[in-house]
Amino acid sequence: MPSVCLHRQGTRAYDRLLERGGLEMYELDIELEDTDPVVWRRIVIAGGFPARILHFAINCVMGWDDIQNHEFTECTDGENAGPPENCGGTDGFRAFKQVMANPQHPDNHCQRAWYL
């Protein structure tokens, strides 16, 4: 399992990460179902990592060796459609929506064919 470095808020390592600029940090609350008392962890992880890194981070904070059965199946809240895969991130998504909203746009036909 690759090493995953998790930094807590208020630590020097965490502050150095933020000082680098442009780094989005996410605080995640992870709770195991059907535990009493509730077993949970709060982690802070940098954005932009692939999902497998989050998977490894969760295993790390739970003290697991990646042999436990687990699933990530429940989305409890959200809003708006997410960007299509490989559309160019948030900037590409903005451009994608503008082109798709305008049938007269010169790229509309090609983009529609790519998406649909």
From TrEMBL:
SUPFAM superfamilies linked to this entry: MM3350-like
Entries under InterPro entries matching the protein: MM3350-like_sf, Plasmid_pRiA4b_Orf3-like
Domain Plasmid pRiA4b Orf3-like as annotated: residue spans: 25-73, 74-115
Signal peptide: none
PANTHER family: LEXA REPRESSOR-RELATED, TNPR PROTEIN
Name listed for the protein in its UniProt record: Plasmid pRiA4b Orf3-like domain-containing protein
Taxonomic classification: Eukaryota, Viridiplantae, Chlorophyta, core chlorophytes, Trebouxiophyceae
